[in-house]
User: Fold this.
Amino acid sequence: MKLNICVRMTALSLLAALASCGGGGGGGSSVQTGPDVGPQESASPAISWYSAAQPLVQRYCVACHIDGGVAPFSLETYEQVYGKRSALAFVLESETMPPVGFADLKPAEARLLLQWLADGAPQGDASQAPYRQIDSSFTYHGDTRAIIEKNCVTCHVDGGVAPFPLDSYDKVKAVAAAAAFAVEKGTMPPWPPTKGYSRFTHERALSPEEEFALTNWLAGDLAEGNPGDYVPPPKEEEVGEINYNLKMPMPEAYTPILRPDDQRCFAIEWPLDKFAYVTAVTVIPDQLAEVHHVIVNIIEPQDTGPYRVANGQDGRPGWNCGLSGGLAGSPLPRQIGGWVPGAARGALPEGTGLGIEPGSLVVVQMHYNTLVAQPTPDQSTILVATSDAVDRPASGFLFTNPAFLNPGGMPIAAGDPDARHQFEVPARFLALLFGAPAKVTMSDTWAIHTGFLHMHTLAKTGRLTLIRTDGTEQVIVDIRDWDFNWQSTYRLEREVLINPNDRLRLQCSWDNSAANQAIVNGVQNVPKYVEWGENTGDEMCLTNFYMTKPQADYDYSYSASVHIETPAYRQRFAPGDLVPLALLFNNFSLHEPGEHGDASHEDSDHADVHEGDHGGVYEGHYYVYLDTDDDSAEHLTAWDAKFFYELPENLSAGLHTLRVSLRGSDHHALGVEETVEIEVVDSSAAESLQLIDVNDWAMQSATDDTYSAHRPAEVNCPDNSWYNEDGALEVETGFCNYLSLAQPSKTALAKGNSLHLVLWHGNLSFAEPAQAHVAITIDGHTAWEETVKIPSEADIYDVRIPIDFDAPAGSKVEYHLHNHGYNTWTLLQLEVER
Assistant:
């Protein structure tokens, strides 16, 4: 929904509009006007200024209709709006305000304002205003524009891979609700690695401060602010220009056929007739709107035969492929590059390169997604830079537990929601098998540069850990919420040294329950026994290494680290609350609490009085301090990664700082700490209440369906065509032609409350013109409904609906959706505001 958008019209056209409806006063109304005289109103009006009209006027009008603004009069107060109510009714009925291109007032919102005006524009009282506990001081230009440009605009541009352009103020406002949901859930920007372990270059993850600013601005009034306050985001570090001496387009254009995901491989002959090192690979997608990701592989000369046979075998360019482009029965391909939205430059680590033999084959795996794009011929191009020699030859290789590949070696039982497998491999074994291209022997130390994991669609989590001979464990990469569609190789910010006696541990987990099965042709698969296999329906547990000899004069030292995962930056608590602490440690092991007796230590007996360098200590416990940098101050001592810190009952409202300091076994400080700001607020503050739980929806029969007249003769809607997607209800209408869900309400509604609904849909398409119908009913009352033409572009509904009926907790809430075509609808939020 577009908010706070300037309505640009001349004073002459506005005066003409006012004249045609009787000026700025009575018009056709019999109610007296003026700041001191208002309409007679009931004690609890169904629709009032405070409950509905003020939020809409503020969002759509006030940015321009303000003292000194571009519009000729102000609409900031109830009295000012009341004085112009006839003009407001006229422009709403004629659909001339807000003008097309500047705002997108939804029909339901316009009807709401017109109903309010027809009821005499009652003011109500301030208690009916929707409650929002936010910091409203943020502006687009001053605070969030640079964040959006740095983290979002790479993909969210016209013609880009993402459906909603975010390269201007108006475009961001148009999808504010969906953006807020994605930021709060951590799904955008897409950055799968868990924050708090090893750091990577070009991380797309938001900082706590950025997330706080975006969340509050998106949930507030979306103030534009002063363009002069804009500070561009820092530029990426300048790098030398890459000389791409090889330009390799796909042999011919390919139009995706499988929808919404088509994974197709293409073979390109390696053009050089002598040995060379690849030093950079960059992919230039031809059709950004449909290219989801790209993997570039090298097939060794002796393994190229099956790939040449597969190419074009089904009469179309290339061949269908899963995995990263490998063929069943062939050695795993060697990945040399790739592309994902937002990918950085394509250079390999400076001074390194991957050797390629003449006669090799380049296999490019293209993953096309046409959920929000029409299939279009694509002929993407691969750019490669090569060199005759490099300082450090590299070996890039995929690796897993060889036993996993044997029948029964990696069993995932049917119905198992948490299947887990792991294995450890000695570093010297990897050097023995794969070190030759990097000139590394099994007795050498070597360096790794990347973190990588590969699994298939049933996967849940994955982790790669380095276990050093001194007992420390460094998590190289950890992914808690695996998404098959967001795979990448992550470049470590600092190379990591591997000693011959170190070990590397790979861990994977899968959800093979009935609820997590794929839908094929509208039918949900039944769970089956799964093990290692090439097909997407099988599973894998793979990692990738980019190995070189160590650099001379490079600092390969490592240190303990701690990351405060909970509480979040400026998370709100009341005095006396228990603050949940959730900490992530790397290169640091917590002792058992029993080794140290009482865990409270609420005194200063353990101040840091020990001298010397404690940087090489990797085990112990931690102290928690409140609002102090003094290590001798009162603190909490703890040995658990999850703990609770109780705030004082008399703690004043405002910002406060929690500090976590790592300690050795003798309580000395290691010089490793992290802080987080929290906000203490008055515990009596009101809050919005959730009306539903996304996991409680259940399908309704025709007898119970309020909209049974809409039901088609045959309803085909398997359970997994609608599902919980990161806390929202997502519906795939390509598999579900009609949806009628219900659940009991989680809280009561009363007259004068507001219902806050946030709902979005992707681009709607169908073979012929059609329409979609969506509705919410509560206790038999239709709270909101909308009819949408098909085809149409993606859209957001972010509306606050005044409630004019009472409904106790436990009342039936219905979600109705009737749609034609392969489209996606997502119900993000349904809550009561009092």
